[in-house]
Design a protein that fits this description.
By secondary structure, this protein is an alpha/beta fold. It has 2 domains: 234 residues, Rossmann fold; 92 residues, no CATH class. It is 26% helix and 23% strand. The protein has an 11-stranded mixed β-sheet, sandwiched between helices. Strands 14-13-15-16-17 form a 5-stranded mixed β-sheet, covered by helices on one side. The protein has a two-stranded antiparallel ribbon with strand order 4-10. The protein is globular and about 70 Å long. It starts with 33 loop residues before the first strand and ends with a strand.
């Protein structure tokens, strides 16, 4: 990579502090990427994530597994907002901020919010904070414990608790944006892509870490499956129209005419210059992909949103190798990828090798927030 001005990158235009105007990327390492000090790396990551996103916009932070650095990425974004004197909101799709992970038993970094930030939790956990935070809005969901939006009276560590369904998360996120007039961050949960739903987020940060596998190739394969999914766009217009018309069931259709086929078995050859598309309104599993591969044709898979995909890295690789494509009717763009080459209490990959391998698997900028390595 040829060293060039940081201002040459689109993500930096009109977003740089004046005292960085003459800053230059240091010479690139032979493996690629650039190592800079942590503060500038953290600012680069936050600006890549937030560039062009208006206040009130929502960012989901999603991990490909547990202990991959998702909370570190979230805290980096929150710290950036504090430095910029921007109030923000934060909530979780699951549970976060507890001192020990309930599944692995490993210690977890706390979620730290700034003065006047708004966060979602439960009344019991809010009471434990004493006068450090004040309730400003309460949501009652019936059988589920109430969700409280609270405002921090000083910089504190908090425990986030999910409101429940996607629609509830969207409602609470909207109120957090209204109360702060700033960005809202949604912390994802292990094994769930629902934060990447267009109903919840406007863009996504993906955290990738060594904890998902002790083979570099396996981790990269899984990371590629995630990043390629987030980088998929919508299908042709006729397909979108036909898919929305038949949103209640699976339909296979031709892109040029919108013609529907009764099933994916025995598909006739499409017209020249056309292909078949399978719209799946529900969950897409490994079995779904394998059944479409069995048609003997290159079928485009259409899903309403990324959260419908529940496939393994291996199944995704087979699908892609056979020429399969994915189209997302309501895509959420991938803003950045963070990497953690260390598995807590286990193995570790060489820092630059890991970062470079993940950077080769995605078009999004990649950041190691602990080593200060950037692949813009």
């Amino acid at each position: 990579m040829t060293p060039r001005s940081r201002l040459d990158y689109p993500i930096w235009r009109d977003t740089q502090p004046e005292d960085w105007s003459d800053w230059r990327w240091p010479p690139a390492h032979p493996q690629g990427g650039t190592m800079i000090d942590l503060e500038r790396c953290h600012d680069a990551f936050a600006r890549a994530t937030l560039a062009g996103l208006p206040r009130g916009g929502r960012v989901a932070v999603v991990g490909i597994g547990k202990n991959v650095g998702k909370t570190t990425a979230l805290n980096t974004l929150l710290a950036f907002c504090r430095r910029q004197a921007v109030r923000c909101g934060v909530l979780s799709i699951g549970r976060d901020g507890e001192p020990v992970d309930v599944l692995s038993g490993l210690p977890k970094p706390p979620v730290r919010v700034g003065h006047q930030d708004v966060f979602a939790t439960t009344p019991r956990r809010l009471a434990a904070l004493g006068d450090a935070a004040t309730e400003v809005l309460r949501f009652t969901w019936g059988a589920r414990p109430d969700t409280v939006l609270a405002i921090a009276r000083r910089e504190i560590d908090v425990e986030l608790v999910s409101p429940g369904t996607i629609d509830r998360v969207r409602t609470v996120a909207g109120e957090a944006a209204r109360l702060t007039d700033g960005w809202v961050f949604v912390d994802g949960a292990f094994g769930r892509r629902s934060p990447a739903s267009g109903r919840v987020a406007d863009r996504v940060v993906l955290a990738v870490g060594a904890a998902v596998g002790d083979s570099l190739g396996d981790v990269v394969e899984l990371a590629r499956a995630y990043t390629e999914v987030y980088e998929c766009g919508p299908p042709p217009g006729r397909v979108v129209a036909a898919a929305r018309a038949y949103a209640g069931r699976t339909a296979v259709l031709a892109s040029d005419t919108g013609e529907l086929a009764s099933s994916s078995s025995g598909l006739p050859s499409p017209a020249a210059g056309s292909r078949w598309y399978a719209f799946v309104p529900g969950a897409v599993t490994d079995r779904t992909l394998d059944s479409l591969r069995g048609t003997g044709q290159s079928v485009g898979l259409v899903v309403p949103e990324v959260s419908h995909l529940l496939v393994s890295g291996a199944a995704w690789s087979r699908w892609r190798q056979d020429g399969g494509d994915l189209y997302v009717m309501d895509p959420v763009p991938l803003a950045a990828v963070t990497v953690n080459p260390v598995c807590p209490g286990g193995w570790a990959f060489e820092v630059r090798t890991f970062s470079a391998a993940i950077a080769a698997a995605t078009r999004a900028p990649v950041f190691d927030l602990r080593a200060g390595i950037c692949f813009p």
